[in-house]
# Entry
Amino acid sequence: MFTSYEEARDWLHSRLTFGVKPGLDRMRLMMEKLGHPERNVRYVHVAGTNGKGSTIAFLKEILNEAGYEIGTFTSPYIETFNERISMNGKPITDEEFLKLANKIKPVVEEVEETNLGAPTEFEVITAMAFFYFGRMNMPDLVLLETGLGGTYDSTNIISPLVSIITSIGHDHMGILGASLREIAKQKAGIIKNGVPVITAVKQPEALQVIECVANQKKAKHYLIGREFQIQIEPNFSIKTPFNDYENVTVSMKGSHQRSNASLAVMAANFLQVYYSFIISDEHIQNGLEKTFWKGRFEEVCHTPRIIIDGAHNVEGVKALKETVLSHFENKKITVLFSALKDKEVSDMMVILSSFANEIVLTSFSFPRAKRAKELYDELDVKQKRFVENWREALEDITDAMTDEDVLIITGSLYFISDVRKYFIP
# Structure
C-alpha cells in the first residue's frame, strides 16, 4: 500500500521503463479484474494528430454550460500530473490519486505475472481513469482522448456515443507508420460498428482511409466542409445538419481552433439530437467563448509580449506560423524552441525560421530532451543561435526586447509545461 501521493506517483512514473507496447489485451484483463468499471459511463472518443485537447476543451465547456457533469482524460499535462483525469476541468485530488493507485497496483502486479507482460505507464493511468469515472465519481459523459494512434491505444476498449478524429499529420511515425495513409489507418481504429465519426481531416489519402473504415463499420461520417461547414468572413459561423450558429466568438486564436470548435459543435448537436442532451444555442455560444486551453497560443507576459504554444510536429508548427502572421505581421519575431529526441525536428525548425527574425535553440531537463547544440547543427539558416539552458536563453532574449518585439516559445509540450510554470507559478 502506498502511504503518500508522491510514492504513488513515483511508482506510476517508474513504469515509463516499459515504454510503448501496442495492444489491448493487458487493458482488457485489468478491466476484467476490476469488474469492468469502463462499462458504467458514456463516452465521446477523440483521436487525431493535433487538436484533440482543444476540441475536448470546447466540448467540455459547452456541456458544462448546459449543466452536465463532464469527465475528461487527456495527455500530456501542463501544470500538474493529476489534470490528466479531471472532472469539470478540475484535476483529481492527491487523495483521490492515492486511492486509485492503491486500487490499481495489485491488479497491475497480477497482470505483470501473466504472459501478457507488464502494463505500461499509459495503460495504468488509463485504468485509473476508467475506475475513477466508473466507480468513484461518475459523470454524465467522459471525453476520452487517445494517447497514441487509435487501433491499439489503451483507451480503445470502449464503445462511445460518437467518435471524433480531429486531424491527420506526421507524428510518431516510428510507431504509427511513415505515410499519412498508414497513420490514418491507426487513427481510424477508434471507429466502431454503427457509431458515427466526426472529422476535420483534409488530406485526400488520409480521408480515403477514414471513409473506407467508416463504410466497413456502417458508421455515419460527418466531414467538415461537407456535412457541416464553417465560414470565417464576415463573421465566424458554423452550420451543421441540425442548426446554424451566426457571429460565433472563439477566444482561442488561430483558424485551426475554429475548426476544432466546429468539431465540438457538431458533436454537441449529435448528442442533442440522438441522445437527448439538453443543449441550447446559448450554451454553445457561451461555451465556445469561455474555452481556454493552457499552452495553446497563450500569452504569458504582455510587456514584453511572450506567447507559449505547444507546436510539437510539422502540422502544429504550420498552424502556429499562420496564427503568428495573422496577429503579429509587422513585429520582430524571436522563436525559442526545444524538442524531444524522437521528433522529426528539421522540417519544424525550417518552418519556424521562415517567419522568425531569429530562432534560438535550447534544451530542458527531461530524459528525452534533445540538446540545443544538436538542434543548432540540424538547422541550416543564418539567423540562429543556441543556449543550452532555457532559462538563460529566456533572460538573454527578454533583456534585448522592445515593446515592438514578440517572443514565441514553442516545441515539446513538456518544455512548454516547464516554461509556463516559470511565468505562472
